[in-house]
Amino acid sequence: MSWLHMLVPSASQLAQMPAQLLIGLINGSFYAMLSLGLAVIFGLLNIVNFSHGAQYMMGAFVAYTLLNVLGVGYWPSLLLVPILVGIVGMLIERIFLRWIYRLDPLYGLLLTFGLTLIIEGLFRQGFNSSGVPYGMPPEFRGGINLGFIFLPYYRAWVIVASIIVCLGVWFLIERTRLGAYLRAATENPALVQAFGINVPRLITLTYGFGVALAAFAGVMAAPMQNVSPLMGSNIIIVVFAVVVIGGMGSILGSIVSGFLLGLVEGLTKVFYPEAASTAIFAIMAIVLLLKPAGLFGKAR
Amino acid sequence: MKQLPFLIMLAALLVAPFVVYPLFLANALCLALFACAFNLLAGYSGLLSFGHSAFLGTAGYITAYTTKSWGYPPELAILLGVAASSLLGALFGFLAIRRQGLYFAMVTLALAQMVYFVCLQAPFTGGENGIQPVPRGHLFGVIDLSPNMTMYYFALGIFLIGYGIIYRTIHSPYGRVLKAISENEPRAVSLGYRVDQYKLLAFVLSAGLSGLAGSTKVLVYQLGSLADVSFGTSGEVLLMVLIGGLGTVMGPVIGAFIVATMVNYLAQYGSWVTVIQGVIFVVCVLIFRRGVAGEAMALARRWRLRAGAVAKP
User: Fold this and answer.
1) How many Cα atoms occupy the beta-carbon half-sphere of A97 within 13 Å?
2) Residue in chain A lying closest to B280 (CA)
3) What is the pTM (predicted TM-score) of this model?
4) What pLDDT digit, counting tens, does each position of B30-57 carry?
5) ipTM for the complex?
6) Which fold is adopted by the domain A18-290?
């Protein structure tokens, strides 16, 4: 019966639970934002954007460069960086991706994987792998003691901002006219084109938008960790697992599973810290056994 | 006539170590076997795995550990490595074939990443340092593998065994069914084939042969390392098969030698190797999808057609 004690939390485990849950919520924010971008791109382009992690990393580095070379601070960066990196994304779509829409979607994965290698290699050449610090914006220094937990202001901001962004994207796609075009083009591009909507441009803009979301997440991440060329590849594989669990079919599904898995990861750190880095993959395996199509996915 | 390319390759491999550093060649042969095993799954069964490093690396660790810490002879250590990777392959395959296409790729990627983290933390792998030096030992207690030349011909023998198994599989009725599944799965199902069993067996076979490559590779450089289980290795094998020609028998061998040469000679340029690999990926996907072997075959076919057209007016 010795394994039973693992199910009953000890006092020290209970004590560190809020802190780990907070970290889980933070990680979940990033999983949600990134898997949301993947889902948006996948919906219209039928491509799993492997370079999503690299574009997230680019977001952090562009913010770093803006701050240290041009003196542009955190707040303007939050808007500027997604626009800049989004434009890069649109160029990538026009130059590379548009040639492969007729092929097996696996070629999209291979192509964006190649682009990831190029982007990461260039950044590793330019900055070294260990990374550079971004520095906390002054208005976010410090935090508030809630009694059971010390909450740094910046972390609170990350959680709130990511929820706002996720719900905003959901609203844009599910509740506006533009989103209706997008969903229609996902279902039947030829028909939508016949109604006079420029589908190729819609595709370019959608990819740019998905990339901009990744870049936004990158700016959000910059003050919390070292800005490093490897930060993207570390997170993207976890996000893939999140996407397998949640399914890429629904916007809301990818948001919910992102936050949920972040929390589960946090809980694992409390009870069985050795497994924290593998928890999400293990959950993926279990979900594949019980519900192969994913929690929110349609069988495909 | 049909076997001519193979005979040329065999002859080249037999004399090569007198010209080029044998250990580099032996390592390239292991990578070639790895690429062929990967191609069996990706090229002939239509299952693109993004996590084959797990099989190469796990078998490598098992062989490294059993020879170094338990003093096992090389043949037994390799056998254990192959057994371990086949078992892992059965587990991965059982989970991954529940999804298709893109999701299959992501599932294998995630599972391999899990294996990577386990290897990083497990006590017996030596973490970041890996296991070294791995003794090569005496094959069947008789043949001393420590001279580099002997090691090379041992690796060549292993490669030929693996290559033969893959060749036979592809050209067997079982291989034909695999090809049919990859081209039109619903039709294969409607013809009464148990598609999942075929896929799972292909996955296990591919994993086991990748393990064979991994175990031998460990003996070549006498190092069991974290790099072999890392995601970069899964990407590299994909690159080899893509350059050589997805779904061609000999393409992966050509691709493996190209990539091994590139990595070896460009090592001094640091991250530029990654950039160049990325560029090759992009070029292969956009304009060179048939790979070296595929293009060569297309060229030969065109010549034959032209010759035929001239012969009968």
Assistant:
1) 31
2) A114
3) 0.90
4) 999 999 999 999 988 889 999 999 999 9
5) 0.88
6) ABC transporter involved in vitamin B12 uptake, BtuC (1.10.3470)
